[in-house]
Design a protein that fits this description.
Layout (H helix, E strand, L loop, with lengths): L4 H10 L7 E4 L2 H11 L3 E5 L12 E4 L2 H11 L3 E2 L2 E2 L3 E5 L8 E7 L4 E7 L4 H9 L4
Helix pairs in contact: 2-3
The chain binds adenosine-5'-triphosphate (ATP) and magnesium ion.
Adenosine-5'-triphosphate binds next to loops.
Length: about 140
């Protein structure tokens, strides 16, 4: 099962975990409306089932409603790692002090969930998957 970031955040919100406010849009006009509601700095984030979205230009910081519309237009026309972007998440921008990577993956050999935490992004998981494609 693959979840988009906005879906994962909805689940986390439901169980009381703190996540930034955000809403998903499928058109630049919808994104514009959300930006007007938020009335402040937001991130426009491509919703595709892959990491590295920021590095591919699919995550942009926007300070005005016009910027949100422009970024949404370009991001919704993008393909990231060959996946077409059909939705963007408009999330309130937060002042990030520190970023960590945390994942729970299935160790199929041990038949147990494996928790991974690191100071860096998802590249460790990628390396593991390359070594053991079944994971
Ligand atoms: N709500 C937010 N507020 C402020 N900055 C954000 C927010 N969401 C994302 N960012 C910034 O954008 C970057 C890329 O977003 P994110 O890490 O969620 O996507 P990714 O798919 O993991 O891309 P990458 O591999 O480039 O990190 C983050 O490292 C962070 O600096
Ligand atoms: Mg990241």
């Amino acid at each position: 099962m693959n979840l988009h970031e906005y879906q994962a955040k909805e689940i986390m919100r439901k169980y009381g975990l703190p996540v930034q406010e955000g809403k998903v849009a499928t058109t630049p006009e919808e994104a514009e409306k959300i930006a007007m509601e938020y009335n402040g700095c937001v991130m426009v984030k491509a919703q595709v089932h892959t990491g590295g979205r920021g590095k591919a230009g699919g995550v942009k910081y926007a300070e005005t409603v016009d910027e949100v519309k422009n970024y949404s237009t370009s991001i919704l026309a993008m393909k990231i790692k060959n996946l077409p972007v059909k939705k963007v998440l408009i999330a309130k921008a937060v002042d990030i002090k520190k970023e960590y990577y945390l994942a729970v993956i299935m160790d199929r050999d041990k038949k147990f969930p494996l928790v991974m935490a690191s100071r860096e992004g998802g590249w460790i998981l990628k390396r593991l998957q390359e070594r053991n494609p079944r994971q």
